[in-house]
Amino acid sequence: KRIAIIGYGSQGHAHALNLQDNGYDVRVGLYRGSKSWGQAEAAGLKVKMAAEAAAESDIIMMLVPDTTAPKVYAESVAPNLKPGKMLMFAHGFAVHYSQIVPPENVDVTMIAPKSPGHRVRELFQDGQGTPGLLAIYQDATGHAKQLALAYGSGIGCGRAGIIETTFAEETETDLFGEQAVLCGGA
């Protein structure tokens, strides 16, 4: 399968590089003028405009901030979602709160590593992995779980363990952990 990583920030760089190192067919989708464009190319990745990357891919992983995800989705991803493709997320916020409403004819899944991107990459390079969460929001093809597990293994989560959850549980526990525990505790 051809995979588009939309975004090249904390999680985006780790996912793209780990998948590439495992032999997956990866391209990074960015916007023209992105400061990450040169970094991704220097790492040996194929880099394209987000819409072009989404159009040519079977799997589209959204790894842009929650605040920009609806706009990037509407402009670059939604017009390129064809029946049978898989739309992926590493956090359920945009889908759980209906900021992104995918069409019914695509798979919608989540692989959420439980670590910042730099650590996902470091552990992968050390031959280890980061535990991850798997959620299936929509299984249009009947193969969503298998593809999501293959993706999770490709970024190294299969080395440490992948636990099944839901978009709602991942989103709410993540927000609680950030807002009540990390920020509230500080």
Polypeptide structure, described:
The protein is α/β, with parallel strands linked by helices. Helix content is 44%, strand content 22%. The protein is built from nine helices and eight strands. The protein has an eight-stranded mixed β-sheet, with helices on both faces. Strand 2, helix 2 and strand 3 form a beta-alpha-beta unit. The protein starts with a strand and ends with a helix. The relative contact order is 0.15. The model has no long low-confidence stretch (mean pLDDT 95).
Topology, element by element:
Blueprint: E1 2-6, H1 10-21, E2 25-30, H2 36-42, E3 46-49, H3 50-55, E4 59-62, H4 69-77, E5 86-89, H5 93-96, E6 107-113, H6 117-125, E7 132-138, H7 144-154, H8 157-160, E8 162-165, H9 167-185
Parallel strand pairs: 1-2, 1-4, 2-3, 4-5, 5-6, 7-8
Antiparallel strand pairs: 6-7
Helix pairs in contact: 1-6
Brief sketch in words of this structure:
By secondary structure, the protein is α/β, with parallel strands linked by helices. The protein is built from nine helices and eight strands.
Task: Give a quick set of tags describing it.
186 residues; alpha/beta; eight-stranded mixed sheet; 8 strands; 44% helix; 22% strand; globular
Characterize the overall form.
Answer: globular
The helix/strand series, from N terminus to C terminus, equals: EHEHEHEHEHEHEHHEH
Largest sheet: 8 strands, mixed
Backbone structural class: alpha/beta
Widest sheet, order of strands: 3-2-1-4-5-6-7-8
Average pLDDT works out at: 95
How many alpha or pi helices? 9
